[in-house]
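User: Could you check the structure of this?
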Amino acid sequence: MVYQALSKTGLPDNAARYFTAEIGREGSFLDKNLFGSHKDANNGYTNTGMISWQKSRSKELMAFLKSQGVIDDKGQIKQTQEALDAQAEFLVNELFTNKAYSKSKNALLSGKGYKDLQQTVGNNYIGWDIAANTLSQSAVNKNISRMDGYKNQLDSLLGTDPAAVL
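Assistant: Sure, the predicted structure tokens are below.
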């Protein structure tokens, strides 16, 4: 469902695969994480949706999702493919229109491989501590390993990603 949503946006296949693995790392594809909000134990902020948007990004996401009709009467993200599609559309719009994410946009457009995207987009757009500035290196390694596992599962389902550089 997540890969399909990302693919529909027109992202290159390697980028859709990268983001699918990143979303798996972020929330294990659990409905409560894909469609809900939770407190980030590392910084206390509320994370929303499939890539855990925070602060103003969370508010902008929710406003966009409401405009797309995928917020229910209780103010929650509906657990539907349409809601995933809308989140993927928001991700691509944010990534390609916000100059703060130009490094990530350029990496995606230049056809960089999975490991390059993991570093560049992880740091610049997703904003998780892949550089181990506050997380322990062991915690970072576990996150990367989990993400790599999701990428490998996706590749086994779809066939090897020709742009993958492992």
